[in-house]
Amino acid sequence: MRSRCFAACFWFFALLAACRGGSGAKPRVVVTTFAVFDLARRIAGPDADVVLLAPPGKRLEDFRPTPETEQQVTGAGLGVLIGSDLDAWLVPMMKKAAEKGRILKLADRVPPLLRPLPGEGGTGEVRVPLDENGPIDVHIWLDPQRALLIARAVTDQLGRLDAAHAGGYRTRSLAVTQALEALDKELEARTSAWKARSFAADHDDFRYYAQRYHLEARGAGASTGAGPQAQGIALDSVGGTAGVDSYEALLRHDTDALEKALAGSAPNLPDH
Questions:
Q1: What distance in Å separates the CA atoms of residue 31 and residue 38, rounded to the nearest whole number?
Q2: How many distinct helices (H) and strands (E) make up the chain?
Q3: pLDDT (tens digit, 9 = 90+) per residue, 157-194?
Q4: DSSP string, 165-218
Q5: CB distance 172 to 46 below 8 Å
Q6: CA distances, 190 to each of 41, 118, 141, 193, 265 (Å)
Q7: How far apart are CA 48 and CA 26, in angstroms?
Q8: Strands (DSSP E) found in the chain
Q9: From residue 63, how far is each of 12, 56, 82, 143 by CA, in Å?
Q10: DSSP 8-state class, residue 146
Q11: Which among 12, 15, 92, 137 would be 20 to 30 A from 110, CA to CA?
């Protein structure tokens, strides 16, 4: 009896290892920024290891990869990046440290906005073709509707990478989708009630959020015509630190800050 139990256990774990590609190890996924990492880790659940490359709270504009970053990338089955010049470094790093790994460029799956020309205060756009070194605004996750597209793209790639657990990825992705849709409805209801409609944040990162909720995000330090409370608002575009340790918490945190500044402000006046 004991030998038969041993044999059954042996073949069970052998089959599990085969489903994992023969190594028994979980697929490894590396992601360049926190908000996308949070969505990816929730979809992955227990079936894949998801690693954040830029530290929590670190903007891609301020992050430079290190030898430790390459170590984190080593052996990854999937690399998820925005696909701009700010995280294009992941592509050659994947080819070197994870040559069999897939690459998911989210800018190919999500409609990106272009960066403003220098000196235009965040209101202009650069009209040139986009490629991996193109001048796109990297902050695509700050629109929950685009975050839905991000979640679908990650789910698709995880299923391709690890077909044995594709059903689990889809199930968890559905839960993420429902959470994002609920968040989007909540934020749409809140923002639609604000009297003032333009703001300037400490960082010029919020065009996607502004576009989604019919606001105007001006360059840092720009005059908004809506009073001083709508200028230089301290917003967090990255997340991952205390109080903003999930995608939803990040978006609610920023909505709280904007609501405090804009909800009671006088309507915008024309600039002169």
A1: 9
A2: 8, 6
A3: 999 999 999 999 999 999 999 999 999 999 999 999 99
A4: GHHHHHHHHHHHHHHHHHHHHHHHHHHHT-S--EEEBSSS--HHHHHHTT-EEE
A5: no
A6: 28, 32, 19, 6, 14
A7: 5
A8: 28-31, 49-52, 78-81, 102-105, 198-200, 216-218
A9: 44, 11, 14, 22
A10: H
A11: 92
Amino acid at 67: P
If pLDDT is split at 50, 70 and 90, which confidence band does 91 have?
A: very high
Q: What integer pLDDT is reported at residue 146 of this predicted model? A: 98
What is d(CA 133, CA 120) in angstroms, rounded to the nearest whole number?
Answer: 21
Instruction: Identify whether the C-beta of residue 248 lies closer than 8 Å to the C-beta of residue 148.
Output: no
- For residue 220, the SS3 value is coil
How far, in Å, are 28, 109, 206, 248 from residue 211 at the CA level? 34, 18, 9, 18
What is the value of pTM for the model shown?
Answer: 0.82
| Amino acid in the structure at residue 125 | E
Q: Which residue has the tokens 């700010």?
A: 86
Write the pLDDT tens digit of every residue in 192-220: 999 999 998 888 899 999 999 999 998 66
DSSP type of residue 114:
B
How is the chain split into domains, by residue range? 187-262
- The more confident residue out of 47 and 234 is 47
d(CA 11, CA 244): 44
